[in-house]
Amino acid sequence: VQAHKEEDNPQKAMEGNGLTPVPDSYDYDLIVIGGGSGGLAAAKEAAKYGKKVMVLDFVTPTPQGNSWGLGGTCVNVGCIPKKLMHQAALLGQALQDSRKFGWQFTEEVNHNWMTMTESVQNYIGSLNWGYRVSLRDAKVTYENAYGEFVGPHTIKATNKKGVEKLYTAERFIIATGERPRYLGIPGDKEYCISSDDLFSLPYCPGKTLVVGASYVALECAGFLAGLGLDVTVMVRSILLRGFDQDMANRIGEYMKEHGVNFIREFVPVKVEQVEEGTPGRLKVTAKSTTGDQIIEEEYNTVLLAIGRDPCTRKIGLDKVGVNINEKTGKIPVNDEEQTNVPYIYAVGDILQDKLELTPVAIQAGRLLVRRLYAGATTKCDYVNVPTTVFTPLEYGACGYSEETAVEKFGEENIEVYHSHFWPLEWTVPSRDNNKCYAKIICNIQDNERVIGFHVLGPNAGEVTQGFAAAIKCGLTKEQLDSTVGIHPVCAEV
Amino acid sequence: GKNEYDLLVVGGGSGGLACAKEAAQFGRKVAVLDYVEPSPRGTTWGLGGTCVNVGCIPKKLMHQAALLGSALKDAQHYGWNISQPVHHTWSVMAQGVQNYVKSLNWGHRVQLQDKKVKYFNIRGSFSDPHTVRGLTKAGKETVVTADNIVIATGGRPKYPTHIAGALEYGITSDDLFWLKESPGKTLTPFVFNVSLECAGFLTGIGLDTTVMMRSIPLRGFDQACHISKIKQMYFTTQQQMASLVTEHMESYGTKFLKRCFPTKVEKLKNNKLQVTWKNADLDTEETDSFDTVMWAVGRAPDTKTLNLETVGVKTNSETGKIIVDASEATSVPHIYAIGDITEGRPELTPTAIAAGKLLAQRLFGRSSELMDYDNVPTTVFTPLEYGCVGLSEEAAVQRHGSDNIEVYHAYYKPLEFTVAERDATQCYMKMVCLREREQRILGLHFIGPNAGEVIQGFALGIKCGATYPQMMKTVGIHPTCAEEVTKLHITKRSGLDATVTGC
């Protein structure tokens, strides 16, 4: 997609096409559609430069009727509640460890889902509130309304009560993010839940089937099992598609050894309700992907985590001519986050071929706004972005997976250094001594530059962050070897 | 040659063992002497040195025990139902820790055997530059000769012998980790990171613990301005990081007696210890009774029995440490020294190990690489951990001038603290950078959970010459504490509020 000059006169072009002429002065300098990580960051940044900014945020309720406040996926139904529930599960493990470190309390330890969920939701509520305050302080106009394009430079905002208003702006940023995908089988929308529902579920999910092999599926299955629930994961083919498969398999192995059941190479074909309740009882029928085998099983809850779809189909993009990938719904942009329509930009999860991560959306949003209004030229750097999967055994990564490195550079040109390690804190409670693992992938031809970093172990996110910074600085194996370790920590491995 | 061994290492600790094993890789004939003089309390231990037996390892494990105590409290906020009250039993923890340490002693002996390194459990002393002799426990004399000798005997805790009763009634870190029974109500006078770490975990497992401070905590660590959240002074010579750490410990339950120093220790009829001290501020004398007094007044190099004068190895007259050059060579040819015993080096296990390996590679391999002691990262494992790498703020100012330094800083709140309703007032980080052109990062300081894990990767970055713009280009991992490092943007100079708010 080529960069377009905004000197082209849109008004003349539109009039030429018989469409309504665009007003000379706009209501706003910038309208951001979507109040999530990317959208809010961009809006607040633009306000800093004295621009008149509006944010539209609206949450279409889930099939189960669930909704939430300002902040987007990360805050409400993503990173934040996920990490808190992951922490609850880790604390369950810590309880067991603590006995070996001399702590004594009764054998029977139970987890109360409602206590946890209430605390998590209270915290999220404080974040929703905090965002509203920060928008107000930044003098950004916020409307809790569904935004869609109706014509050039014009959007229609519809609130919960159905009241419609029209607004115009010189520029727009689309940051509407994504929502969980459904299977399209009988009973899916009626009886199944998604991550959109899980974090505010007003009852303990009980015996749960998680459908999917994405990081969402594995993270949720992981903490549910850690809280003491009977969890099964149904996987169609491979785990964590797109991630280093060696690491993905290790994660799966660990989860299996720690009480998560896996059903591999099956897909659900039907979900029926056996009994109503909170939770009720559901019967799932599944078919093998490799043969004719059919299995049936009962669960209290079925959680679908098979992927997410961008919210781009019903926001009037056709009315302004913004191209989307028809198959995926994602919006292609150039390296300045500009769509094919010069005054319309996009950031975050809806972008084609970009990473679906909060910090990336925030970075992209801020840099975009600085380029638009502060004369900056820095573009978002999408290379060597670190990530962490918060499964029971956490996985942090930055750079190439082993497969992609081999593909790009050739097996003979890369060197993989690896090691198992035993976190000191796991010794006394006799936890696994050969599960934690780290590997770095080096490019032999480029001074053994570190092009991939992978670690499986506790606090993987904290460990990986600094290494990501080092990789950004062009870290080589030699520099890595000459850096002294901090002792005793996992990261020194 | 006529010498029996190519290399003799005196001292089987972190540095010594690393050097010996590396030399053995080159097919050399290597011997290691290790001997532990029992502490005044009678405590002794096996092969592996300070780190394994009475340092890093047991310290971190007991720190973990204390952290798990906090985790138990957090867990209830996260929905876990635990019967109250919750007890801690010292002997269960101590046994777990001691068993693990013993497995490491065993592991080291097996490793030496596998690598065909000869191990003598004797206390050696020099009789000439190539000869060391010593007595085994059974009283048998052994003489070992070698072409090259590496001294790696480390250090032992000092006693403040000028204080009456200090030696008779007090213990040190040498004894703390091997106690079979709980130390009970404990006083640890004087402040080095050892006493803060020990006081921290003792408090965490529920013991009544008091730290007595003559002056400033964590001497040698960062001591820049003490700041309030709203008003930052640029930098003064007051404590900052150190005071944040101790502030947290105070809210955590550790008692602090500031500007006090003990004058005597006596034993009472009920076997408790009565400590008398002077309060320098009030100019009064106070007393209280404790079950245990643990001295943490610094460590002294273990050289007295080595007979260094006989062979002419020069030591620093003040500290007693062995003077070495950049290649770890002493004043006597073919005699080297590494680890805690050397003058001017950080007292850390990983530097001793690295130095030992590089030394062996230079002696027997074809390497000429010297040990780089710059930018060595460290962590203090207090209840709220403090990790750092590179220059402190004062050192940066001293080296470059205050106008050439920019300090970026932030107060942040770990996500896990929110639901747990934990106070994050002291969770803080700062990055010291050069102001000119590239804005190279000179130092990074972080107070918070898992500080060691956070700092390690950034230490690599600093080794690569990381700059502030590169740090800002690095995308954060969300949600972690470490990501806040990549978002630092408020400078101390600006005087703005450095509290991080939301995503």
From TrEMBL, chain A:
Catalytic activity from the UniProt record: H2O2 + NADPH + H(+) = NADP(+) + 2 H2O; [thioredoxin]-dithiol + NADP(+) = [thioredoxin]-disulfide + NADPH + H(+)
Classification of source organism: Eukaryota, Metazoa, Chordata, Craniata, Vertebrata
Source organism (scientific name): Melanocharis versteri
EC number(s) per entry: 1.11.1.2, 1.8.1.9
Residue stretches of biased makeup (Basic and acidic residues): 1-10
Residues annotated for FAD binding in this entry: K83, G147, D349
Residue intervals of the FAD/NAD(P)-binding domain: 28-365
Pfam family, one: Pyr_redox_2
Name of this chain's protein: Thioredoxin reductase 1, cytoplasmic
Gene3D superfamilies: 3.30.390.30, FAD/NAD(P)-binding domain
GO cellular component, one term: cytosol
UniProt function note: Reduces disulfideprotein thioredoxin (Trx) to its dithiol-containing form. Homodimeric flavoprotein involved in the regulation of cellular redox reactions, growth and differentiation. Contains a selenocysteine residue at the C-terminal active site that is essential for catalysis. Also has reductase activity on hydrogen peroxide (H2O2).
Family stated for the protein in its record: Belongs to the class-I pyridine nucleotide-disulfide oxidoreductase family.
Coiled-coil segments: none
Cysteine pairs bridged by disulfides in the record: C74-C79
Gene Ontology biological-process annotations: cell redox homeostasis; cellular response to oxidative stress; glutathione metabolic process
Cofactor-binding details, from the entry: Binds 1 FAD per subunit.
Keywords recorded for this protein, A-Z: Disulfide bond, FAD, Flavoprotein, NAD, NADP, Nucleotide-binding, Oxidoreductase, Redox-active center, Selenocysteine
Enzyme class, UniProt record, top EC level: oxidoreductase
Any GO MF annotation of the entry: glutathione-disulfide reductase (NADPH) activity
Binding locations of NAD(+): G212, A213, S214, Y215, V216, A217, L218, E219, G307
Reported cofactor(s): FAD
Disordered, as annotated region: 1-20
UniProtKB/TrEMBL annotation, chain B:
Gene3D superfamilies: 3.30.390.30, FAD/NAD(P)-binding domain
GO annotations of cellular component type: cytosol; mitochondrion
Domain FAD/NAD(P)-binding: 5-356
PROSITE patterns reported in the protein's UniProt record: PYRIDINE_REDOX_1
The Pyridine nucleotide-disulphide oxidoreductase dimerisation domain, residue ranges: 376-487
Entry's cofactor comment: Binds 1 FAD per subunit.
A GO molecular function held by the record: flavin adenine dinucleotide binding
SS bond list: C51-C56
Names of the cofactor(s): FAD
Keywords, comma-separated and alphabetical: Disulfide bond, FAD, Flavoprotein, NAD, NADP, Nucleotide-binding, Oxidoreductase, Redox-active center, Selenocysteine
Protein name, UniProt field: thioredoxin-disulfide reductase (NADPH)
Biological source species: Melanocharis versteri
